[in-house]
Design brief:
Length: about 160
């Protein structure tokens, strides 16, 4: 029997309830879920890659088929490295579509064995993005409806000054 593996890539800067919804819904459909924090040389990020990974690890500690990785390079190469043939992405609004179409078409061109599956956001999370959550946190407003408690704490710490 072959093991089914899926990769959930992203910046996760930081992880939100929107990301977690996609992660949790994926866990019972694949044997292994590999979260991949992509190191992007052109985007510094608010949290370091190590900080992002630690926040994800804490958020998924109850899910035993989820592993967290960091990778700098092409996502399809990461998929090859771990033997995964599926990428899962979330879709929030029509505005996500164009970017995702370009990304998926490029990945397909680079490696036609890897398929990307899209999962629609749950309606109550459709407005949540890491960048909006950071904006709210920067103004010292409460973000506990959008991110797990330990992430809210990390955001408060980051924007303390
Ligand atoms: P990227 O910079 O690659 O878009 P993100 O961390 O912003 O990385 O997002 C990673 C994945 O999670 C993307 O597929 C994105 O569409 C999805 N995602 C983010 N927020 C939500 C949400 N609220 N609901 C559903 N999917 C989401």
């Amino acid at each position: 029997m072959t093991t089914t593996k899926a990769v959930i890539p992203g910046s996760f800067d930081p992880i939100t309830f929107g990301h977690l919804d996609i992660i949790e819904r994926s866990t019972d459909r694949f044997d292994e879920i590999h979260i991949c924090v992509l190191k992007n040389s052109s985007k510094a990020g608010t949290f370091s890659v190590d900080e992002r990974m630690a926040l994800i690890e804490e958020s998924v500690k109850g899910l035993d088929n989820v592993t967290v990785h960091a990778f700098s390079g092409l996502l399809v190469d990461f998929c090859d490295e771990i033997g995964a043939q599926t990428i899962i992405r979330g879709l929030r609004a029509v505005s996500d579509f164009e970017y995702e179409l370009r990304l998926t078409s490029m990945n397909k061109k680079l490696n036609s064995d890897v398929e990307t599956l899209y999962m629609m956001t749950s309606t109550n999370y459709s407005f949540i993005s890491s960048s909006v959550v950071k904006e709210v946190a920067a103004y010292k407003a409460d973000v506990s409806d959008f991110v797990p408690e330990h992430v809210a704490k990390a955001l408060n710490e980051k924007f303390k000054k």
